[in-house]
Amino acid sequence: MSDPTALRQEILRLTREYSRQVHSSFRPASDPSRQPWTAGNPIPYAGRVFTEDEVEAAVSTTLDFWLTLGTEGEALQKELAKFIGVRHSLLVNSGSSANLVAISALTSPKLPSDRRIKPGDEVITVAAGFPTTVSPILQVGAVPVFIDADPITGNARCEQLEAAYSPGKTKAVMMAHALGNPFDLATTVGFCRQHGLWLVEDNCDALGCTYSMPRELAESLGFKENSPGLDEGPDRVVRWTGTWGDISTQSFYPPHHLTMGEGGAVNIVRDQKLKVIAESFRDWGRDCWCPSGIDNTCNKRFGWQLGELPEGYDHKYTYSHLGFNLKPLDPQAAIGRVQLQRLPEFIEARKQNWEVLRKGLADLEDVLEFALPTHSTGWDPDEGFSWDSTGCRTECSWFGFKLAVKPGAPFSRTELAQELDRNMIGNRMLFGGNLVRQPAFVQLRQERPESMRLIGDLADSDVIMNTTLFLGTYPGLTLDMLNKEVDVINAFATVNV
User: What fold does the segment set 71-317 form as a domain?
Assistant: First the structure.
């Protein structure tokens, strides 16, 4: 019989060699071993970026065949929480599930009655974006209140928050940082503090983005410390997005800043009670907090009397919430742990790729409108961004390069998208555009007009829906690929001017 340890080592050696030979086109663009892109091949807007390290990690943990969330998952949860500087991170099977768990946690009867989201209560959100930022609000029986979006940043018009507020009914704000551009956190956090509201940051597109503000303002909002690894001097507080609210969410789907194939996370920023509640909703709704395969961490497994159950009923089979089973697998977590180590270089690659595209398309400002970070008032190819008078700043780890076709341009957004498709250049709309125009939301408004509330006419969300698309910025894009995109767009615009 062969030595199992030696056999395992040989399997992993061959795994690494196989990956090097077969998957070289998925290596980071900066990796000298990356298979070069050749003209005529597709340029995806996003995709997996990995090496043999991730493949080895997945195979190694699969050989153990625990499969369900275990030691790799526990390690990744701690490593992710430490990286961004939150109290806990809970892994789930997708970013959409993360949003569902986050908003569900705020419905728990374990919370104070005046803060708990109950059926008919309202949650303020933004009209332009991805549907599963909003659908969980409806799924828990709450009413989404839609405010408009800014076509330049893609983010919520936070000046509408007060108009959306309904005393006694509004319980939370839940919005996404659009395409890796933080929304106005100073205004939003201040609004939530003033009215005693929960803030849920959908950080799925924005892992690695930062938001900073003058220390005096930050401390007035309850923030004194920087996030780990960040510093802008003694007069400013700088934190990762996903750490300003009460709960935040991540997605680890392949287009995102790191990937587990599928997967996501719920970040509990401060409140330990929210961790226990969110974990319950993730894990069938059970009251017990013992990890899978571990019993009696409370030392009174048979000493509880809850609900109308008999005294001593097994705590592992006691359910305090109407929960789900939304855990990922341990091999996914093993991949995620390797990806997390790459996150700093991935963040920088996204910033650099955005700059390459912006400089390459700078001559098209008469026909194209380009994104700006929140609080930015302009961009210069030499000086970079200029900023407004608030003292707040954003540093974007861009999920995508957003642009819009200006009114009066001799071509439409659709025609530009078709040209990109003809050249096999990946592009996407800003997700669902104005979500209230989507078939599911139109039908819901027709059948149950009271199911949602709109602030104003959402005209700018319509502008986004009709004029905007985005290109990729992911770290698998080489300079040749980016230059090809620039050449195609410049040539198309020049011919059509």
Answer: Aspartate Aminotransferase; domain 2 (3.40.640)
